[in-house]
Specification:
It is built from nine helices and nine strands. It is globular and about 55 Å long. It has helices at about 5-15, 25-35, 80-90, 100-105, 120-125, 130, 150-160, 185-200, 225-230, and strands at about 40-50, 60-65, 75-80, 95, 115, 160-165, 170-180, 210-215, 225. α3 runs parallel beside α7. β3, α3 and β4 form a beta-alpha-beta unit. The protein has a four-stranded antiparallel sheet. Strands 4-3-5 form a three-stranded parallel sheet, with helices on both faces. A two-stranded antiparallel ribbon has the order 2-6. It starts with 6 loop residues before the first helix and ends with a helix. The chain is of the alpha/beta class.
Length: about 230
């Protein structure tokens, strides 16, 4: 039996034309009308790409620092030793460790949002790859989270860095800020993310790169955007 819609949900759905592909400006302006929660809702982007990530040459992943941040307080864990551990603490990392941090993770204590590692620690991290990997927390050189420059990595993570990776069905989901940012800042963050995703298009991907693009708030219905317009953002 279908779940009955609440009056609030029905009212929100009436504000969105489900048959229309909105322009970027129209979609972002519509989001402001969809705010319904008592908290500052996150602006979320959903992309469906015409790629098959089962093939290594069609994997789409990367990272980008949003000009206005995400509006989220990010807890950063760093795997490093000695001077690099001190550097991580000085940069503002919330948790810094090595073997001791591995034990915490194995015990189920995962109270961080991003993991950064110096290259020499990646062998140790292999012990918890099966725990961190499915959560999207495993450090990777392609996203700048395996690096000797821990100061830069921590600063970017704290300042609004977004990592994106296509899932098995070709989808990418990312939060790009809070509704309170206002239309202009949301658009700038959106454009920055899309530029990075377009730049990451695999050479082997054939046909239309983006099949569906939508934006929404945490508690709102989705607003479908013109994929053609979004693909032109370079």
């Amino acid at each position: 039996m279908a779940k009955k819609l609440t009056k609030k949900r029905e009212a929100l759905l009436k504000k969105v034309d489900a048959t229309k592909e909105y322009s970027v400006d129209e979609a972002i302006a519509t989001l402001a009308e969809l705010k319904s929660a008592k908290f500052d809702e996150t602006v979320e982007v959903a992309l469906n790409l015409n790629v098959d990530p089962r093939h290594a040459d069609q994997m789409v992943r990367g990272s980008v620092v949003l000009p206005h941040g995400t509006g989220k307080v990010v807890r950063v864990a760093v795997f490093a030793k000695d001077a690099k551990a001190d550097e991580a603490r000085a940069a503002g990392a919330d948790i810094v460790g090595a073997a001791d941090l591995i034990e915490e993770i194995q015990a189920g204590n995962i109270n961080f949002d991003t993991v950064i590692s110096t290259p020499d620690m990646m062998g140790v991290l292999g012990k918890v790859a099966r725990i961190l990997g499915p959560k999207g927390l495993m450090p990777n050189p392609k996203t700048g989270t395996v690096t000797m420059d821990v100061t830069k990595a921590v600063t970017e993570a704290k300042g609004g860095k977004v990592n994106f990776r296509v899932d098995k069905k070709g989808n990418i989901h990312a939060g790009i800020g809070k509704v309170s940012f206002g239309n202009e800042k949301i658009k700038e963050n959106f454009t920055t993310l899309i530029e990075a995703v377009n730049k990451a298009k695999p050479a082997s991907a054939k046909g239309r790169y983006m099949t569906n693009v939508a934006v929404s708030l945490t508690m709102s219905p989705s607003v479908k955007m013109s994929a053609s317009e979004v693909m032109d953002i370079k």
